[in-house]
Amino acid sequence: MSRHDTSDLIFRRTLAVFPISILILVAGILFQLVYSSLPSLSKFGLGFLLNSTWDPVAENFGALPFIFGTCVTSFVALLLAVPIGVGVAIYLAEYAPPQVARVVSLLVDLLAAIPSVIYGLWGIFVLVPYMRNTLQPFLGKYFGFLPFFQGPNYGVGILAASIMLAIIIIPFIISVSREVILAVPQVYKESAYALGATRWEAMSNIVLSHGKVGILGAVILALGRAIGEVMAVTMIIGNNVVITPSLFSPGYTLASVIANEFAEADSNLYLSALIEIGLVLFLVSIIVNILARILIWSVTKGNSAEGVR
Fold first, then answer.
1. Of 124, 144, 117, nearest to 256 (Cα)?
2. pTM of the complete model
């Protein structure tokens, strides 16, 4: 027993090294970002987040246009991707023939594995011309009274980047949501059918209710991918420092401005401002995950309370 206890203790302490190394890695990244951002932090302070001017010549930097672009593109992408992704997941899990489900699931996995630069090239040669010649003129003609669909028709812009992000994150939503739906115990659905529920009632009231926490996790995973996406967005968003309600207008995101201007940073303050944007992106990602954990915890707590009642 003593030998077994010693082996277990060594094994447990060896395993403890791995989570500690993750904490050290995160702390190291945060420290380096803060340290490299000190010139920008000391000069602009918190006003960096509220300043909408980005002028490398005058060395006047503000991150507000990039925060705005990141929030808008991510929100529109989720607005487009979540209904499609969850709908496809429901069809594959409950309605599709097994052969169709296998083939489509394989294609979904392949889409998730495509590098973002390939999506960007497809966006330049296919999506942008379609936006310029078909979709944006249609939206401007019939919905031009809304400020979202006004402005220049370049093809590139916030709407094109949002659609591209939606295409990129849909496979993640489908894959995770499908696994969540398949993980719902079959006895729950059989009980609903025995009580006279239709297939739609069993799906909406039993399956989706039971799996909503997992589906929420899929949405949060997709949001994290949308916030941090770089190449595909950089290639078709237009890269213009502007805050406008128009989705047709070119814009910028936190990730794309770093990728697009890092090589051009010819002064310490310019470089420090870009690194501070990376720090903002890092902190935004952490905040999103914390909020997601709180939301999931609240939903899980509610389910537990219902189970007690």
1. 117
2. 0.86
3-state secondary structure labels for all residues of 219-247 = HHHHHHHHHHCCHHHHHHCECCCCCCCCC
Nearest to 234 by CA among 65, 125, 98, 117: 117
The burial class, CB within 10 Å (0-12 / 13-18 / 19+), for 244 is buried
DSSP string of 169-196, one letter each residue: HHHHHHHHHHHHHHHS-HHHHHHHHHTT
Answer whether 220's CB lies under 8 Å from 74's CB.
no
Dihedral of CA 94/87/161/277: which sign? negative
Q: Catalogue all structural domains in the chain, each as residue range(s) with its CATH number.
A: 64-307 (1.10.3720.10)
- CA 77/CA 81 separation, integer angstroms: 6
State the Cα angle at 119 between 52 and 98, rounded to 5°: 130
At 99, which amino acid appears? Q
Residues with Cβ within 8 Å of residue 79, at least 6 apart in sequence: none
Question: Which residue type, as a one-letter code, is found at position 280?
Answer: V
| pLDDT tens column, 97-151 | 889 889 998 899 888 888 889 999 999 999 999 999 999 999 999 998 999 998 8
CA atoms within 13 A on the CB side of 184: 27
Tell which residue, 83, 74, 114, has the closest CA to residue 123.
Answer: 114
Residues 210-221 have pLDDT tens digits of 888 888 888 888
Residue-level pLDDT at 8: 80
Among 106, 154, 112, smallest CA distance to 133 is for: 154
For 248, counting Cβ atoms within 10 Å of its Cβ (0-12 exposed, 13-18 middle, 19+ buried), the class is: buried
